[in-house]
Amino acid sequence: MKRLEWDWLLITGFVVISFAVLFVVKVPKKRIVEKEKTVTLVDTIKVPMKSVWNARWFALTGDLKRGGQVGSQTLPIMIDRDWRTGKVFKHYDNYIAMVAESRIFAPSSKSYRFELGADDGARLFIDDSVVLEKDWESGGGFRKVSADVPLRAGQHTMKLEYWEKTGKARLYFRCPEELTQWKRDSLVTRDTTMMVAETTVYKVSVIKYVLKGLLGEQ
Questions:
Q1: Burial, 57: exposed, middle or buried (Cβ in 10 Å; 0-12, 13-18, 19+)?
Q2: Which of 68-77, 154-163, 197-206 has the lowest average pLDDT?
Q3: DSSP class of residue 92?
Q4: Same domain, 79 and 121
Q5: Most CB within 10 Å of its CB: which of 6, 81, 124, 170?
Q6: Which of helix, strand or coil describes residue 178?
Q7: What is the pLDDT of residues 141-172, one digit of tens each?
Q8: Cis omega before residue 7 (within 30°)?
């Protein structure tokens, strides 16, 4: 065989093998695809809050100490309960005591007027400190006391203690309305559908990659 024919065969074989390699060997390529997905969003909303008393009632012993709990109830923050000589709680008209807890929110740092009245005895705590007391040790007929209490802006805890021995019974409490209503932040979640771009990686042969590049295809 002539040398020219050998050279042609070698060239042809080289070209064929090269194209085969270009088809077999693959290169990575990225593709961005938009897909519809359900995602969870978190929003902050303002929730209206209103103060109430969460009250627990106790039997009162002969030496005016709280005994066992006899029940509970929710009371409005402003109280004026005049039981006179009737039932104070359930079947109790005498020897009954109450401990009630609540929260208030001061919109600004200043003094606020609180009023407390009782027959027999009562006292008011704000942030664990006694700020008002009416005949707590001795009891007696109905009488009101008041005080201007300095509060820093923000939330505060209140505790109201009351006891009734015998005779007439009454409990009275007042504070500024602005302390008893406020709004707090609350997180809520909701599901929504949106288009999300996702990147996928796939492989194409070298020859396709080159041809797409020459043709301007992505």
A1: buried
A2: 197-206
A3: B
A4: yes
A5: 124
A6: helix
A7: 999 999 999 999 999 999 999 999 999 999 99
A8: no
Task: Copy the structure tokens of residue 52.
Answer: 């109430």
The answer to whether the pTM exceeds 0.70 is no
Q: How many CA atoms lie within 13 A of 149 on its CB side?
A: 26
Expressed as residue numbers, the domain containing 195 is 3-43+188-215
Cα radius of gyration rounded to whole Å, the chain: 41
User: Does one domain contain both 110 and 138?
Assistant: yes
Specify whether 159 is located in the same domain as 60.
yes
